[in-house]
Amino acid sequence: MEPEIETETGAHELASRARDRVRFEEDALQYADDAYRVARRLTGSVDQAEDLVQDAYVRAFRSWKQYTPGTNLRAWILRIVHNLAIDAGRKKSRTPQIEPVEESDYYLYQRMGGATAPEEADVVVEKLSQGGVVSALSSLPQQYRDAVVLVDLADFSYQDAADILDVPIGTIMSRLHRGRRMLKTGLANSMELEEAGRA
Amino acid sequence: MSTTVDACTHAEQRMQAYLDGLLQPADKATVERHLEQCSPCACAYRFEVKLRHHVKACTGCEDEERCREELLAKLKSLCCGGAED
């Protein structure tokens, strides 16, 4: 009788594993929007973002046993998206990035001449072109750009960003702090370049 | 006695944390009181708020909604498919 019991146990295990896998896939798919949101901002186009998300889900489904049930599945999926984006970025450019200078918090505001009334500040901001903003953001070193992209552009919490990038929350805060300042320096430089081009 | 410059520096140093909603109530109240009284800092604050919106708008992805359905269908097709562990 023993072999039968063993077969039965084996069949139960197989069925149980198949159920776990289906549940994992269903749960993982709930985070497709978040995955796309991150991918869209880490890549240059819709096509690249879609490819990245698909690659991430292929990898997630293939290595689903490495996920520990009960831990943060959303962060686990988004970390795969982020790691694949970094790998793709590395292949594209192996040039070491030079860190932009970090200025004071009101640096950009002062460089743009400030404002005499709060309503005027709105007009001052509008002088920053979309091209200048995109260029300044993309020239940030990867680790600072990731923090700014996830928290400021994709509205993830500090904790979510820390989970996705697999770093302590304090690291996210300091990268965000520096990243925002470097972004302002980059925006000021972009604006000056555009003005020089028009002159 | 704190000078105006000190109060402005105090507000500037806390501006990002204030915008992130991370200041303790007492610190938050100090910053808000200063912004009510100091016009140059109020202008800088408005600039910082607007800048965050502007950067987000310039890098936003208007096509996100359209892509989600198509993408989700593709991802569903990956489930338990050829990707055997």
Structure in a nutshell:
The complex is a heterodimer of chains A (199) and B (85). With 199 residues, chain A is an all-alpha fold. Chain A contains 10 helices and no strands.
Structural account:
The complex is a heterodimer of chains A (199) and B (85). With 199 residues, chain A is mostly helical. Helix content of chain A is 75%, strand content 0%. In chain A, helix 8 crosses helix 10. Chain B is mainly α and 85 residues long. Chain B contains four helices and no strands. In chain B, helix 1 crosses helix 2, helix 1 runs parallel beside helix 3 and helix 2 crosses helix 3. The model of chain B has no long low-confidence stretch (mean pLDDT 82). At the A-B interface, helix 1, helix 2, helix 3, helix 6 and helix 7 of A face helix 1, helix 3 and helix 4 of B.
Shape of chain B: elongated
Mean pLDDT of chain B: 82
Helix percent band of chain A: over 70%
Order of helices and strands of chain A: HHHHHHHHHH
Q: Distance N terminus to C terminus of chain B?
A: 69 Å
Low-confidence stretches of chain B: none
- Number of alpha- plus pi-helical segments of chain B: 4
So what's the oligomer here? heterodimer
